[in-house]
Amino acid sequence: MPLSFQRWPIRWKLAIVSASLTFVILLIFGGIVGEMATSRIRSDFNRDLQEAATRLVSRTRIIERPFTEPVVYSPNLVAVSLPAGATARVINSEGTVLDEAPKNGVDLGPPSAGISSAGSLAVATEPVFGPNNEVVGYIQYGRSDDHVDSTVTRLWLFIFLGILGGTALAVLAGVALARRAMRPIATLTSTAKEIAATRDPSKQLPQPAAEDEVAELSQTLQEMLNALDASQTEREAAMQKQREFVADASHELRTPLTSILANLELLEAQLGRVDYGEERELAASAVRSSQRMSRLVSDLLILARSDAGQNRPKTDVDLAEIAMSAGREISPSLGERSLQADCKPAPVHGNQDELHRLVLNLLDNAIRYSPEGAEISLATRLDRRSGTVLLEVADSGPGIPEGMRERVFERFVRGNSTSDTAGSNGTGLGLAMVRAIAASHGGTVAAERSEQLGGARLVVALPALQSPDQPPGKRGQAWRTKSPPPS
Q: How many whole angstroms separate alpha carbon 379 and alpha carbon 228?
């Protein structure tokens, strides 16, 4: 079948196939009935002619006389022929017309046994026998068969219209039946689409009332959904236990790591008072590793809490103050870079420690991926139209490639190593934490290109605190330091 027909809905395919079969059946049946009816009509017409001619013969006598014309005794041919619009005549054995009606001189042709044609007339010829059983003449009775042809034409027209009407009714009935038959399938399809959109396999499929193949299909799909729902529930339970374990383990690791880091820093300070150069370098290396491990555990704790849905207590805070505090904290790590802060009041409902960590990670990312002498900007503002608070961190570094602007927020994804000015100290979790913290506060984060500085621009949008308008204000400060970042 053509490809276009294959794309048709099943109900239309069923309707077209059933209508085609009906058309073929009606065509064959109509042809047979038409041929039989036509043959019967013409046979009846010929029989009537033959019977009329036979009746005339039974009432006709031809007496031949020597040397004179024969004498004909026959019924009134005018009374016989005129009511039926026929032509009747009596001829002798030599073909001479002895009597005819009407007197129009229509040539009925030479006598021929059976039914013959003479122009538009069908002619029945019957012999007339004499006393000695010899043929002494013939009776010819002819009638026009135009009405027979007209009847046959009307018959075939009626059959053709019947075939078309039957086919049209078959199409309509096929569409109605197919639509009714496909209604349970359409309901199943609609429910399946809803399940696919909501990803909720616990939804129940409609069960058809009839015990047929559609009901069996619905029952099978329902069993499959029940199995998927049970599997998803088990998987979610296992994932939840895993998230809780990671969160608990990360939390428990913080205490011993803090103790180890404090002892190592104390050891490094004591070794610095005497000439233990190599031992002091080893202690300093251990301190740096412990600090990196402590940051990693802290990052994992925040991400694990976010995955497990463990939200920390929130209060009404000003994101502008948190941003200024984070800027002051990270200023020793700027090196030759400059940080410009333009922080306007930005009231939000959130956890101050997590938001502080969010700003620190954004600033640390800007420092890490911008060269010495680069400019970094930090800004907060309230967008009253959208009801959100915006936090923006931009830099004049190489920026984030367009294909990486979504992936940078994934875990353990780091930028191009050539643009990383801090070497391999990063864990690839900084921006993942930013997105997790923003999500836990009902916000979003996006990476763009800074039109002003030309580098990366990271924008965090958080729901604004629903409180009376604060008086307009602005906090601005610039930091610039040449001191190297802390070990």
A: 47
| Average pLDDT across the chain, whole number | 77
CB atoms within 10 A of CB 188: 19
Residue located via tokens 């934490």: 433
Q: Is residue 186 part of a domain?
A: no
Question: Which residue range(s) make up the domain with 230?
Answer: 214-305
CA distance readout (Å), 91 to 34, 71, 133: 38, 11, 17
- Looking at the structure, do residues 289 and 427 belong to the same domain, yes or no? no
What beta strand segments (E) does 7-50 contain?
none
pTM here is: 0.46
Q: Which of 161, 114, 120, 128 lies closest to 144 in space, CA to CA?
A: 120
Return the structure tokens found at 269.
Answer: 């300070």
Q: Which two three-digit tokens encode residue 71?
A: 């004498």
- pLDDT of residue 421 exceeding 60: no
**Rounded to whole angstroms, how far apart are CA atoms 365 and 437?**
16
- Taking only the tens place, the pLDDT of each residue in 368-406 is 888 888 899 999 999 888 889 999 999 988 888 887 888
CATH number at residue 265: 1.10.287.130
Instruction: Look at 137 and 241; give whichever has higher pLDDT.
Output: 137
**390 and 280 fall within a common domain:** no
What single DSSP character describes residue 309? T
Q: How far apart are CA 109 and CA 138, in angstroms?
A: 12
Residue 316 vs residue 273, higher pLDDT: 316
Query: What's 313's DSSP letter?
Result: P
Total structural domains within the chain: 3
